[in-house]
Amino acid sequence: MNLLEYPDLEVLIMQIRNASGFDFSGYARPSLLRRASRYLTKNKLTLPQLISHLEPESDIVFDLMQEMTVNYSEMFRDPDFFIGVKSEVFTYLESYPGLRFWVAGCASGEEAFSLAILLKECGYLDRSLIYATDLNNKVLTAAREGVFTLSNVRTFSENYLLAHGQNSLSDYYHVSYNKAVISREIRKNIVFSLHDLTGDGVFNEFQFISCRNVMIYFTLELRQRVFRLLYESLSMLGFLCLGKRETLRYSGIEQNFRVVDTVLNIYQKIK
């Protein structure tokens, strides 16, 4: 049950913006409402109490922002996507002397690690650099460590096999203190850094951008702004990958792409 009503949420969004400069106004309201209510419940706060603590640069501002951003993922999530990337994208990129990949909204690094493993098995990892970004510093810290529970890794291993992995996922991690730690070889070509898709600009040019299951939390206006950023970050003939519930329709840039796969939502920039 939500503790907040939508008018309360608008007040909270304004207070967060005033205290931190981060603007949640373009995010879909139902998800924000659930997460803000959960934060109040978890911390045993009322809305007035929370607002009274939202001072610029305060710990509680950033703690609330971490709670209100979406951080769930799995390694090799949607295994057919990775099969499609290998067959329809990597074969096109194999002639490039150097490759730059961007995993936007990387959460705890699951997709970045999956991509690195796929590149390793295809022989491209040594000439690839993966930028993995998120606006949530807490999950980025976890991503840099590359540590997962063994129960999560069992799910990851099932996904890996369904994605036609060439080996065993256990070849890419070691177990320490009942945790799985992603190997140094897989992590070394990944750069994890803070980046806000809704407010920050272009920071490099990429042959491949994965921004999966991120747009569904944005309003149409914000999606269009983010799509423009992704378009400007792609090299000509670069590939853009979206989640299965997402689409380039109404993005304002759909005419600049050809559809590589309508089911997996893989697109290639053509102009």
Please report the number of helical segments: 10
Largest sheet: 7 strands, mixed
Written as H for each helix and E for each strand, in order along the chain, the element string is HHHHHEHEHEHEEHEEHEEE
* CATH architecture label name of the largest domain: 3-Layer(aba) Sandwich
What is the number of E strands? 10
Radius of gyration, in Å, reads 19 Å
Task: Give the N-terminus to C-terminus distance in angstroms.
Answer: 47 Å
Strand order of the largest sheet: 6-2-1-7-8-10-9
The percentage helix is 40-55%
CATH superfamily caption of the largest domain: Vaccinia Virus protein VP39
According to CATH, the fold-level topology of the largest domain is Rossmann fold
Whole-number total of structural domains? 2
Mean of pLDDT: 93
Shape: globular
Q: Can you tell me the CATH class of the largest domain?
A: Alpha Beta
Pfam family, one: CheR
Keywords: Methyltransferase, Transferase
GO molecular function, one term: protein-glutamate O-methyltransferase activity
Enzyme class: transferase
